[in-house]
Amino acid sequence: MNHATPHNADLSFDRRGFLLATAGLVASAMLGGLPRSAQAASLTLPSLPFADNALDPVISANTLGFHYGKHHMGYLTNLNKLIAGTEFADMPLEKIILATAGKANKAALFNNAAQTWNHSFYWNSLKPKGGGEPPLALKQLMESSFGSVDACKKELASTAVGQFGSGWGWLVLDGGKLKVVKTGNAETPLTSSMKPLLTIDVWEHAYYLDYQNRRADYVNAVLDKLINWEFALQNVG
Ligand code: MN
User: Fold this and answer.
1) In the prediction, which pLDDT does 211 show?
2) Is the peptide bond before 128 cis (omega within 30 degrees of 0)?
3) Are both 152 and 78 inside the same structural domain?
4) How far is the centre of ligand 1, averaged over its atoms, from the C-alpha of 31 (Å)?
């Protein structure tokens, strides 16, 4: 994909928009004179752990600009609107997810909260010049759980590719063993007894600008060149 397209010009605009939006949220949280319960204790978007173009060419700056600046930001903006003035306004993000999971009348809240969390976790699951050999302790876990690093990667790839429709592929820790699972839409292993170690976003917005319908090419390229095994190992704890 040609990155000298007008989309790159859009990126700096998106970023300004994002900074203004963030400044607005902070300002609204600091407004004096309002009763405490009416103040918006807004959640903010963590910065990307790398530059917009740092994952290029596996994930282009164009994809990253829309994915982080529009999609991820959109979930957070919706979430802040939904929690304003409610019992959820002062809760940490993880608590909101756990408190709303599986509740039909809280679906919008859950979806936006879980998508906000899932995306931050996804950015941390990637790094420039990632992939390659996992650190020894993770490698040993992969070998005892799947037989080999390659078998683990293959299962992660086929599970992520096989998720029907929008969702996520995950490497998780389940009772001391590694497992690979997939979730649909905003669902997240955070609400289960499994501990998420890393994730791959397989919503079409994660890859369509760069790979169109070729989800497998995106997933395999991420696993070979961007996946952050060190982050996964940190999460093993
Ligand atoms: Mn996404």
Assistant:
1) 98
2) no
3) no
4) 32
Point out the domain boundary residue: 77, 98, 124: 124
Residue 54 contacts by C-beta under 8 Å, 6 or more apart in sequence?
Answer: 128
- Closest alpha carbon to 210 in 225, 196, 198: 225
Distance in Å, CA 213 to ligand 1 centroid: 15
Range of the domain at 164: 136-236
- Kindly give the distance from the C-alpha atom of residue 72 to the centroid of ligand 1, in angstroms, as a whole number: 7
Is residue 194 situated within a structural domain?
yes
In the three-class reduction of DSSP (H, G, I as helix; E, B as strand; rest coil), residue 181 is classed as strand
- Quote the ligand 1 centre to 207 CA distance (angstroms): 9
Residues 145 and 184 in one domain: yes
pTM of the model: 0.84
Would you say residue 19 has pLDDT above 80? no
